[in-house]
Amino acid sequence: MSDQIPQPPGQHEVLTSPGGAPVPPGGSSGGRFGGRALVVTGIAVGGAALLGGGVWAAISFLGAGPQPAEALPDSTIGYVSIDLDPSGKQKIEGIKTLRKFEAFRDEVDLDPNADLREELFDLIQEDAGCDSLDYDDDIEPWIGKRAGFAAVDLGGDEPVPAIVVQTSSAKKAEDGVKALKDCLGGDSTGHAIKGDWLILAEDQDTADELLEATEKASLADDEDYQKWTDEVGDPGFVNLYAAPEAGPYIADLVASELGADTDLTYDDEPVAPDPATEEIEKAFEDFQGMAGTIRFAGGSVELEVAGQTGDDAVTAAIGAGDAGDDVLATLPEDTAAAYGVGFGEDWFEPVVEQLLAATGEESTIDEVVADLEAESGLALPEDAETLAGESLAIALGGNTDAEAFDSGDPSEIEAGLKVKGEPDDIEQVLDKLRPQAAEEGETLVSEEGDDGTVAIGMNESYIGTLTEDGDLGGSDTFQSVVPDADDASSVLFVNFDASDDWLDTLLRDLGAPEEIVDNVAPLSALGLSTWTEDGVSHGLLKVTTD
Predict the structure, then answer these.
(1) Do 421 and 504 belong together in one domain?
(2) 15 Cβ contact list (under 8 Å, min separation 6)
(3) Residue 38 burial by CB count (10 A; 0-12/13-18/19+): exposed, middle or buried?
């Protein structure tokens, strides 16, 4: 799925965001490293932080050549690498694309011909406050094109953070590090040099340990690292890796981000684990590793990830197979947004069980199902699985007036559900739901299509268009962001240009700040597709701009 689709003349450019990529365990350099010389020297950290905000997404391309993984030991459990000095063509094209966004123009006054290493140095130096350092004299003579930030297991209670920076001269790198430490009045940061790489750590003993461990076996030669980086294909300008041993750290990070309680003590007394935390930990207890990469080549930038967390009953039941686009591809070509997914057999109960575990609900699944049956009038799980069919797509029409969302009348919104299943059985389930809709003053409309699908919704005219065999899957806009839909188990698609300013109007109606509205204006389309191959889960995110 990493093959690039040629960009037709006059078509949009492509931009992607690395948001959502797993952060390597071990945390940031703040606190653990102590010395600010490392912050100034470790351009990798500054670059990685900026990448996390989407600032540098699309300004570089990492081709073949030495990789930071060569200068790290095989006990590395989390790793991010970046290119600090991309080729001129890639840099210029990327910066031109980013300059379409007002936030980038306001916050980063960057010339397309600028040396990104120097720009990063200036930003970090401003924060560090070491004015006596000069990029041309102290940094440029030795700094290379690539850098990496890692968390490494050296046998202690916690993994240690490490930074590696490519050098063009070991001697000049030594001089540069000395100048940095002198500027800051002495610093405890440790460093070592291995070939063309400068290794930075929190102290000299740790730097020496990292060097010794790397000389025994490098991350680049590790079987897990090779397996997962191969799964995502050619390297990009940002590369991510998490070893199997990273599972507990990722679980803790995910739990924290979701607001789950990871503190299992109160007044120094142990308390029962948060049910949501337990569920997250369970999901990662069989974690087998992952890798990701962001590419910018041939007019296209994409974030692709691959990983494996062990058996997952929900994933096996929903989003399994390649039916993600079976219905979605038949939607009208002017669809503004859609989500398509395929279903396996007996998917309902695994989903409910996971929801119960995640929310900490103490009710049994039988009790929850009984409550749902009483409220809905459905027979569960049979009716729910019938209604979902083999695959379905949720669609938002491209001609919806965004003001319709404020009307309170769902029949004014071009929205609907298209299901591939057994039409007669689906209609029987809908008949159970119609009385409840009528009590709310709404009419549930359904219509069978020629291809054995059923369109369901409240906007009768739009439901009529859904029954037709549309060509969303064949449109250039769709294919530019979902290049291999036939293999996808799920697909999310958004066409920001489906109708005039529909997204701008919707965001304003929702009370979004004007700066957000201004910064989504350049967006053209978004595609997020997932698929499974030989038991490995893959994901591809692409975003296009006008």
Answers:
(1) yes
(2) 57, 58, 97, 98, 301, 543, 544, 545
(3) buried
Residue 28, CB-side half-sphere exposure with 13 Å CA sphere:
9
What number is the average pLDDT over the span 204-213? 96
Question: What region does 10 belong to: left with phi over 0, alpha with psi -120 to 50, or beta?
Answer: left
Whether residue 7 is contained in a domain is answered as no
Span between the terminal Cα atoms of the chain, in Å: 24
Calpha distance 361→347 (Å, rounded)? 20
Q: How far is CA 220 from CA 66, 80, 183, 192, in A?
A: 10, 13, 34, 18
Asked if the bond preceding 350 is cis, omega within 30° of 0, the reply is no
Within 10 angstroms of residue 423's Cβ, the number of other Cβ atoms is 17
- The phi, psi pair for 211, rounded to 5°, reads -65, -45
Query: Residue 459 sits in which domain range?
Result: 311-545
- Residue 190 pLDDT > 50, yes or no? yes
Alpha helix segments (H runs only) across 346-381: 348-359, 365-376
d(CA 183, CA 130): 6
pLDDT greater than 60 at residue 130: yes
- pLDDT confidence tier of residue 443, bands split at 50, 70 and 90: very high
For 317, which DSSP code? H
Do the strands 238-242 and 76-83 form a parallel or antiparallel pair, or are they unpaired? antiparallel
Q: Count structural domains, the chain.
A: 2
- Contact between 181 and 174 under an 8 Å Cβ cutoff? The reply is no
Query: What does each C-alpha distance from 135 to 72, 186, 471 come to in angstroms?
Result: 26, 19, 55
Q: What angle do CA 491, 257, 542 make, to 5 degrees?
A: 30
Q: Are 53 and 160 members of one domain?
A: yes
Q: CA quadruple 511, 512, 515, 517: dihedral positive or negative?
A: negative
Four-CA torsion 292, 297, 299, 304, nearest 10 degrees: -10
Distant-in-sequence, close-in-space partners of 533: CB < 8 Å, separation ≥ 6:
487
Regarding whether 470 and 340 lie in a shared domain, the answer is yes
**Helix pair 275-284, 247-257: axis angle to 10 deg:** 140
Counting every residue, how long is the chain? 546
pTM of structure? 0.80
How many angstroms separate the Cα of 354 from the Cα of each of 20, 54, 349, 383? 21, 32, 9, 20
